[in-house]
Amino acid sequence: MAVTDTLAGSDVAGTADEPTAPRGKRRFVASPAAWLVWGVVVFFFVNLAALVGSVLVNSFARQWFGTWLPNGWTTKWYSQAWDSFGLLHVIVVTLQVSGLVVGISLLIGVPASFVLARRSFPGKSLVFFAFLLPIMMPPITYGIPLATVLYKYELAGTMTGVVLANLVPSVPFVILTMTPFVEQVDRRIEDAARMCGAGLTATFTRILAPLLLPGILAAGILVLVRTVAMFELTFLTAGPDSQTLVVALYYSMSAAGIRAQQSVDAMAVIYTSMMLVLLVIALRFVNPTQLVARVKEEQ
Amino acid sequence: MSVSTPVGSAVPEHEGAGGWRHRLAERGIDRQLWLLAPAVVFVVLLFLYPFFYGLQLSFQPNEGGPFSDYDRFFSDAYQRDTIGTTLKLSLPAALFNVLAAVPLAYRMRGRFRGKRLVTTVLVVPITLGTVLTAEGLLNYLGPAGWFNRILMDLHLVHEPVTLIHNYWGVFFSLVITGFPFAFLLILSYLSGIDPSLERAAATMGAGWWQRFRRITLPLLTPGLATTFCLTFVLAFSVFPSAILVGNPAGSTRVISIAAYQAAYEQYDYPYASAIAMVMGLVELAVIALVLLWRTTLFKGSTGGKG
């Protein structure tokens, strides 16, 4: 038991079993299980890197048939993708849609999460269940009836329709993400504000909103990432002028043969770099491991 | 306005007119609940209404009695088998993602240098999205891709292995998008388990396997069930990758393809709604089974709960 996992650092086993090893100088001995786990991780990452790399290489390739590397490099696929897919328009639409979705879902979701976190009222579990359902159902299941309804009211194919469809999973997502943040805020602060004569609006805008700002940012950025990546709902409701980047990418890919594959790859690289920027911003505000259970890291 | 006085400490200002309001407030209903109204209206209008609209549409087929669209789906083997195809893809993929994430998360639950970096790198696949993953799989695992070249240069195989445009292509795509998600969730459940419990077990002489098997795993299992449900939902609704890297006419013709074709290629909305309802029902049945099993597990305050 003393030979267990020290590669993983300050493990539970480490504190219990190695009084001799001084802190900071760890034995680089790991059990076979540890090596196996890390080996699998490295294997996963090598393949993943190769997968992304092959797209990246192909997007800069002049020609690439049956060799290790292409026989020349060029950036023309990027300019070609930019022009022939009208990428500027697509990116503007993507940003508009996701910006609207983030704004509206925060406006609707944050007050609701406040009530759900603080209050108990008859039928609360029913309301909570109704908010949980859109997250638990596959998007296609409610996407097709939703698209049918949107067609009935002539909203499908427009940007309004795309925004409405994307709000369906976003609002519950904001509510679920925000609830632990609301629970963290000390109730007595609100009570004190009320005693000092602040009404509901003043309590909300001047006391709660500043305290909840980290949570609001986290929820907003996560919704942004999700909306940019959301394929199914946008695909079902978008028209030619309201496509987001993922959907345009899908269409260009499934119509293979018409476009050079490198051009599609260039577009995919643009999409990924956009997502990567969003992710890096997101990780500045959110610790991804604390989304479910907010627990103090052990000192 | 001095609304929403905390329950119990409220002093009725006016008898009579304000009395009913006060009585409601004692049951937890007061004006603060209006904050919930936009969200409720939203869910009713954009989720429940379309859902029930689709439900009643599925009972009004273009021809035949109220159940003829369901009958059509279940009597046509080509359509009926999509349920099996979807489950055959999504159940193993979700199970694999959860089971592979447990040892990794267990190893990473403590604090060590570079943890933040490793977690960040593990989250990156989430940003790839299904379409880029599909494109990458086509390039990398294709007959002339790097993967097959390595295998052939190492003389492990003589002909390129077919890994795309079949079951495995979709499976890999589900693992790439689902695994980081499962890992993050499990890691956060694991860090919710009190480490002193394991330390206590260690002082009583339990080895790492005993500690994992008797302490951590029972506390983690409810979280695992939740994680399984969420990854299963992701895998069950597989759509773009089943078309792009799969074999959408054969071995990976999942139920969402059937629903999509009915709606957007045949313009038969009642039939499409019927398929969508079947799809939702099958998925909810699996989730209900898992959650039912979860209720039999330990639910304590030591963390790891859903």
Explain what this protein looks like in three dimensions.
The complex is a heterodimer of chains A (299) and B (306). With 299 residues, chain A is mainly α. Chain A is 70% helix and 0% strand. In chain A, helix 4 packs across helix 9 (200-229) and helix 7 crosses helix 9 (200-229). Chain B is mainly α and 306 residues long. Chain B contains 12 helices and no strands. In chain B, 46% of the residues are buried. The chains are: A mainly alpha (299), B mainly alpha (306).
Fraction in helix of chain A = 55-70%
Shape of chain B: flat
Most extensive contact:
A-B, 104 and 105 residues
Low-confidence runs of chain A (pLDDT<50, min 5 residues)? 1-27, 291-299
Radius of gyration of chain A (Å): 25 Å
Contiguous low-pLDDT stretches of chain B (5 residues minimum) are 1-15, 301-306
Radius of gyration of chain B: 26 Å
The CATH H-level homologous superfamily of chain B: MetI-like
Instruction: State the secondary-structure class of chain B.
Output: mainly alpha
Biggest sheet layout of chain A:
none
Count of alpha and pi helical runs of chain A: 12
Please report the distance between the alpha carbons of the first and last residues of chain A: 25 Å
Brief write-up:
Chain A is mainly alpha-helical and 299 residues long.
Give keywords.
heterodimer; A: 299 residues; mainly alpha; MetI-like fold; 2 domains; globular; disordered N terminus; disordered C terminus; B: 306 residues; 12 helices; 68% helix; flat
Write the layout of secondary structure elements.
The complex is a heterodimer of chains A (299) and B (306).
Chain A: H1 12-17, H2 32-59, H3 76-84, H4 87-118, H5 124-136, H6 139-152, H7 159-184, H8 187-195, H9 200-229, H10 232-237, H11 245-254, H12 261-285
Helix pairs in contact in A: 2-12, 3-12, 4-7, 4-9, 5-7, 7-9, 8-9, 9-12, 11-12
Chain B: H1 19-26, H2 37-58, H3 68-75, H4 77-107, H5 115-141, H6 146-153, H7 167-190, H8 195-203, H9 208-236, H10 240-244, H11 255-264, H12 269-295
Helix pairs in contact in B: 2-12, 4-7, 4-9, 5-7, 7-9, 8-9, 9-12, 11-12
